[in-house]
Amino acid sequence: MLRNSSLNTRLTLNSRLHCYTITAVLFEQIELPITGAMCSLMDTDSLVHQDFQSHLTVLYHELFDANVHFHLVNSIRQAVANHQLEIGHSPTFWGYTISAHVSTSISLLCRAYDSDKRAVHLRSLLEMVRDNPQVFCPDGLRQRLGQQSGSEHLVVEWGEPDAAKIATDLTFLDGRAGVIVKKLKVWRNNVAAHTNRDASLDLEAFNKQWALNREDMEKLIAEGFSILNRCGSWYKATTYSRLPCSRGEKDYLHVIDALSQTANSRKNLYDLISQYKDY
Description:
Order of helices and strands: HEEEHHHHHHHHHHHH
Number of helices: 13
Distance between the termini: 100 Å
Oligomer: single chain
Largest sheet: 3 strands, antiparallel
Low-confidence stretches: 1-42
Helix content: 55-70%
């Protein structure tokens, strides 16, 4: 058995290359970057697969959750209009519930539409497809699909990424194709991430110029899922559901029904008491 001392291992910092250099008697010199030190030892395509699958998963959960929170906001608002008596017993609770769903949905969309080079977002997903044609190609998709039934049809449909569509999507994410993404980023930089001083001095003017309305949110969620589904299809012919299965998005109705039953029971009790108030 070799002792560690016999390896004569030295760990030195090469300031010129900004990397750690491990020198050992029994091994060739290997240069390891400070960030992701083992990356230089791994196959580049393997790293693309690893990153891409991780990005797909993270972005799916962010967009899915953003859509569920947004859906609940719209559903609860409709319930408020149809069940004013029941909701009216606890307006503070329902007001803050709606506000929390709105804030969470916007926060999740801000993540998905971010552009920081260190972050996971829709832009990085598209750039990986664009910059790795050796992975996103008919042969690559064919290999990933294996021998499953109908795989060749899927290869014909999704094996070759649409370069023009990728360019269009990237332009949309930059905010150059319309004001919606720009509004989201302005909201993120002035309200969601922190409160900007200028915005706080005149919130009315800020909201008038940059407020996100319901149609904007719907568009951001829909476009986000469209980009995600294209990338998922180019990678493994996969698309993603936008709402929970088994009508989970209607769970709130059980709460409304319970409130209705309580309100009716209370009303019946009051009616019963009123019949005997003169006795």
